[in-house]
Amino acid sequence: MAYHVYQSTLALSTSGHGDMHDITSSVSRIVAQSSIQTGIVNIHVIGSTGSVGTIEFEPGLQRDLPELLDRLMPPSRDYGHEQRWSDGNGHSHLQATMLGPSLSIPINNGSPVLGTWQQIFFLECDVRPRERKIVVTLQGEDELT
């Protein structure tokens, strides 16, 4: 076995605040293309108002997660970001920061190690539609050569 690093980028178009995407199959496809059998895959959003995580990707939770974040960090003109920039997305930055821009998942037998009801999601926290780039980086050992 040999140690390798492999990197690819996903592109997403979002409709704005609360738009969730299941990116599990895209990440799994990149893992398969890499030939890495055992290692780690890191998924990282470029930008300060998007986030990634894992969840059971179903309609109820697609509604619940953005609603919960809006209750915890609602749109408001009281945020320092709003007072400085007046762009309506102070809460977006805070929500994305709370969830985080990166996620690492083990790879075993050439696949991400996920539970049956565990999918990888991207959540748009910004108030406007965005063209997003998600960098997927793998490190690990490939097949026997």
Core attributes:
8 strands, 4 helices, Jelly Rolls, 3-stranded antiparallel sheet, 145 residues
Element pattern in H and E: EEHEEHHHEEEE
Here the CATH topology equals: Jelly Rolls
- Number of folding domains? 1
Radius of gyration, in Å, reads 17 Å
Helix/strand structural class: alpha+beta
Label the overall shape. elongated
Question: Could you tell me the mean pLDDT?
Answer: 95
Question: Helical stretch count?
Answer: 4
Q: In CATH terms, what is the architecture? A: Sandwich
CATH class: Mainly Beta
Largest sheet: 5 strands, antiparallel
Q: How many beta-strand elements? A: 8
Give the low-confidence spans.
Answer: none
Percent in helix: 25-40%
Q: Kindly, what is the distance between the CA atoms of the first and last residues, rounded to a whole number of angstroms?
A: 6 Å
CATH superfamily: YjbQ-like
How much of the sequence lies in strands comes to 35-45%
Sheet with the most strands: spatial strand order = 1-8-3-5-6
Secondary structure: elements and pairs:
Elements lengths: L2 E11 L6 E3 L1 H11 L1 E10 L4 E6 L3 H14 L7 H6 L4 H10 L2 E7 L2 E2 L6 E6 L6 E12 L3
Antiparallel strand pairs: 1-8, 2-7, 3-5, 3-8, 4-7, 5-6
